[in-house]
Specification:
This protein has about 250 residues and is mostly beta strands. It has one domain: Lipoprotein localisation LolA/LolB/LppX (outer membrane lipoprotein receptor (LolB), chain A), CATH 2.50.20. About 15% of the residues lie in helices and about 40% in strands. It has three helices and twelve strands. Strands 1-8-9-10-11-12-2-3-4-5-6-7 form a twelve-stranded antiparallel beta sheet, with helices on one face. Strand 6 and strand 7 form a beta hairpin. The radius of gyration is 18 Å and the shape is globular.
């Protein structure tokens, strides 16, 4: 879910002022009920919930064909600077991904669209010197990295699911509750698949559709360094004709 192109590719005239769509603070619409105390009954109950959840999510994954949503991101770079973005996000199995930037802390990136089909190149439509430009660059071109430096082939839905289901993970039940009106289950994961600089992750799962809707990454100092949130999710529906084109 790579978002921001660097200044070289996006050096437009009269850049729009940036907007911090996500400020990295606690999500106001998240209401979490803590789990039972750490007695044996509570541990057994947590394990039963996790076992059922993972079984249901594996089944969901076998039927998942595509996803459309409004995606919001918050990122902290290694140097401590922060960035935020909101995009229209489309995904189609196995790796086809598009991001159309609607709001950003870097105003010059608004309107940029990126399309990746799972190969070594990523197609980009962006504004250069006041004119719209379509081009292709290497998927690991530093200008296509998000504010934290991660690339689209590291943060998309397929690698996210691979991280979540890695059998080597240490998994805990954080709690259950609601995200707005949505019943959710939160799962904590320490994974060898986590990206550079990430010590642990928290996944917020839609308890009904069994789909991750928020992914949070924390560094070894317990600082939130990366958060992706998906709202208005549509799964396994017909995709817009321009979903994966540089319209």
């Amino acid at each position: 879910m790579t978002m921001l192109l660097g200044a070289t590719l996006l050096a437009g005239c009269g850049a729009d002022p940036g907007v911090m769509v996500d400020n990295g603070k606690a999500q106001k619409d998240l209401k979490l009920n803590k789990g039972l105390p750490g007695n044996q009954q509570g541990v057994n109950n947590d394990q039963a919930i996790l076992q059922s959840l993972f079984s249901d999510m594996r089944q969901m994954r076998t039927t998942l064909r595509n996803v459309q949503c409004d995606l919001t991101g918050y990122f902290v770079s290694d140097k401590g600077s922060v960035g935020s973005i909101q995009t229209r996000f489309c995904y189609e199995l196995p790796n086809k991904t598009s991001l159309h930037i609607k709001q950003s802390s870097e105003g010059s990136t608004v309107g940029t669209k990126m399309v990746w089909s799972g190969g070594k190149q990523i197609a980009v439509k962006t504004k250069l010197l006041g004119f719209w430009l379509k081009t292709s660059v290497d998927v690991h071109d530093s200008r296509t990295a998000d504010h934290r430096g991660y690339f689209i082939d590291e943060t998309g839905i397929t690698p996210m699911m691979d991280t979540f289901f890695d059998p080597r993970n240490q998994v805990t039940l954080v709690g259950q509750g609601n995200l707005g009106a949505m019943p959710i289950i939160q799962v904590g994961i320490v994974s060898p698949r986590s990206l550079r600089g990430v010590a642990r992750e928290v996944f917020t799962i839609d308890a009904q559709r069994k789909m991750p809707v928020v992914r949070e990454m924390y560094d070894r100092n317990n600082r939130l360094v990366h958060r992706i949130r998906m709202d208005n999710i549509i799964m396994n529906a017909s995709m817009p004709s321009n979903a994966f084109t540089l319209d």
